[in-house]
């Protein structure tokens, strides 16, 4: 059967009230962006449903793309039928015949959004079901676990028939919840945190701290590739801000007692990220922290590190086990990149015995002997910004700083 459209169901968007149309418009833009490689398609959106009109494009490839778009609860390849009983019966027969194999069972699942249609749901069930049984020898009914579930949706403009219900990514459309900065290392956790934040409708920009010559260009390439993966999921370009961090880290090593260097390093990273956030007009900072995973992720460490900003810090992984994080990393295809053996600045300067319960007053005391402000300002001014495109193998440079 040649389907002519794909019916998209909204899920969580349907719970929105007066703002629903804004969410629908965001989702429509996401769908159109992701489906740019298919120039013949047309996207139609209403308050309750969205349709991708295929116009001869490859439906199988489009289905794979739609599976990863946030804001889609489920979708079905469908055919559009005139609003009359004979057309409904004939089109239903053609669709089920195209899928039927000897001995299979079926059921009809009607939904009548337009109550003016001449048949109610029971009438649709009996009329269509009886017609299929009469015209397909060997076909049997199974209302609990059918091999073929024919969905009949009667709407104001037409009737839509489908036999598949494919799960989407869920969540909210990209950019519908505002913008936040993702602190992106080369590890496993932060790309997963970025993915989960995007699933809740956040547009993200990434911030990576780079310390040459202690970190190599290969570690930088690793982060670019991680950002490219996230951009591919998001369906749009993501800015990657690369912060030169060598001078700040060396000052920390020289001025701060060793067991507190990790705490101060995180505080300086947060201060710099917050400055970039302010310039980019974002509203929050996202980290890949998971409670108790490492020394800097204890509750005491977070309490001490957070002191340097009033900006909301979002931690999507905070209660997750490492095995759960790794599972998601595998699913979104970032795990292999994260496991490349190229260290970032967070791992090369780890002290032998980092403080797991640092105190604010102590770190304030240690930092008071050195003015970090000029180094922070210099790092922000020298940020290199790349625009990572989801479909392009190259990145563009912006002169934002």
From TrEMBL:
Keywords: ATP-binding, Cytoplasm, Nucleotide-binding, RNA-binding, Thiamine biosynthesis, Transferase, tRNA-binding. The keyword Nucleotide-binding applies. It is an enzyme of class 2 (transferase). InterPro entries: Rossmann-like_a/b/a_fold, ThiI_AANH, ThiI_fer, ThiI_N, THUMP_dom, THUMP_ThiI, tRNA_STrfase, tRNA_sulfurtransferase_ThiI. Its EC number is 2.8.1.4. GO terms for cellular component: cytosol. HAMAP family: ThiI. This is Probable tRNA sulfurtransferase. It comes from Neobacillus cucumis. The gene is thiI.
